[in-house]
UniProtKB/TrEMBL annotation:
Residues passing through the membrane, by range: 21-41
Keywords: Membrane, Transmembrane, Transmembrane helix
Domain of life: Eukaryota
Record's keyword annotation contains Membrane: yes
Molecular function GO labels: alpha-(1->6)-fucosyltransferase activity
The protein's name: Uncharacterized protein
GO biological processes: protein N-linked glycosylation
Length: 400
């Protein structure tokens, strides 16, 4: 505005004529128009700035486009991945349903008295369960004399296969000195020294061919039932009684067993060790022992004795049979004191003997005990077994 005042003053001084006034007015208007045009229009450097903007803008648009397209692609991939996840979930649910269905079928089999339903259906046999009936039938043959009072078939075995077992003509050649008791598994190195020989000798001692022989003597003993005595203490006590019976050439006959005094054990197995495992001697010898207990002369002659005829020291700390020498001296040391393994101590013989007696008393489980073990295994491994069985079936179908 200062420039306009100066120009106006100069123009007024230049002349006061009309033409001059008109010219001055036109000049001033032109100056004003130019001034206003200069203010309204952008400076000359603006076009240079515009020349820089498009690449940046194109980059922004390009990035946005890429982001948008990537977003579409990612969205597509996410949708595909989501579908796969959902499909995988459906497959997992279907697989879990099949596993539970197979597990339930096996569970129902455990609750039935017969497996005929399983054999007639398409349900695969559970690999973690035993066929209790078949096992008991087989073990009864193992635990009794053959025809004409010949020794059991397992004394014929020449190896772990026992292929001669089903051939009846071998009964005539049965040999008591063959050391293959079927309840001992693994190699000799995996068992305590002389285990197979000791188990065979205990079985022969406890199963005389003729239980009516008047020269036979018996030791009838109840299981320990004092408060606080667990199954381990009961087995240790019975091991001591078995040692006494063998040293005195008596047949051990177990009597009352408090842990079998319940409704799960039926008939003669009620309150008896035979509810869980095969009896320690034959049924004929048990009958003979209980008959002698009713005869006063048998007590006087010493044909029958009971646990009360012996002191606690004799039962719990008495000498073990030495007819096999001292095999416990060959045991691998397992007792550690102050960081050192003790190679020999005064309890090694009793530890070895308790293991032998326990193994004999628990040699064959009954059908009831087999069922209990099946239930326990099924509870622990049933679902995993069902999964493995279904995977195996699926793999076999893919191979076909």
């Amino acid at each position: 505005m200062t420039l306009m005042r100066v120009l106006s003053r100069k123009a007024m001084q230049a002349g006061s004529s009309a033409p001059c006034k008109i010219w001055a007015t036109g000049f001033l208007c032109g100056v004003c128009i130019m001034f206003l045009s200069g203010v309204a229009l952008p400076p000359l450097r603006v076009p240079q700035s515009r020349s820089v903007d498009p690449p940046l803008r194109r980059a922004i648009l390009w990035n946005f486009t890429l982001t948008e397209h990537d977003g579409v692609a990612v969205t597509g991939e996410s949708a595909s991945a989501q579908e796969k996840i959902e499909e995988r979930k459906r497959d997992n649910h279907a697989t879990e349903a099949r596993i539970l269905q197979l597990y339930s079928a096996w569970s129902s089999m455990l609750n039935t008295a017969s497996d005929e339903v399983l054999k007639s259906s398409d349900v695969p046999w559970p690999p973690h369960l035993d066929d209790c009936k078949l096992n008991v039938e087989r073990n009864k043959r193992f635990d009794s004399y053959g025809e004409n009072r010949t020794f059991p078939h397992w004394t014929l075995w020449k190896g772990s296969l026992g292929l001669e077992l089903l051939n009846q003509k071998y009964s005539e050649n049965a040999n008591q000195y063959r050391q293959y008791p079927p309840w001992i598994l693994g190699s000799d190195e995996e068992n305590y020294p002389l285990t197979r020989r000791v188990q065979r000798d205990i079985w022969i001692h406890q199963h005389p061919p003729n239980c009516s022989d008047p020269s036979l003597r018996f030791l009838v003993a109840d299981w320990e039932r004092l408060p606080g005595f667990g199954i381990g203490a009961q087995l240790a006590g019975m091991a001591g009684l078995l040692a006494i019976a063998i040293k005195e050439k008596r047949i051990l006959v177990t009597n009352y067993y408090n842990r079998a005094d319940h409704n799960g054990c039926h008939g003669a197995s009620r309150s008896s060790w035979s509810c869980y495992f095969f009896v320690e001697t034959s049924s004929d010898c048990r009958k003979r022992a209980f008959q002698l207990m009713q005869i006063k002369a048998s007590w006087a002659e010493g044909s029958v004795k009971v646990k009360e005829n012996y002191t606690s020291k004799q039962i719990w700390a008495g000498r073990i049979p030495r007819m096999w020498g001292e095999p416990w001296k060959y045991l691998q040391p397992t007792t550690e004191i102050n960081g050192r393994l003790i190679t020999s101590h005064r309890k090694m013989d009793r530890r070895w003997w308790i293991a032998q007696a326990t193994r004999y008393l628990m040699r064959f489980p009954t059908e009831y005990m087999c069922g209990l073990l099946n239930v326990a295994r099924h509870s622990a491994f049933g679902l995993e077994a069902a999964k493995l069985v279904l995977e195996s079936i699926q793999n076999d179908s893919l191979k076909v």
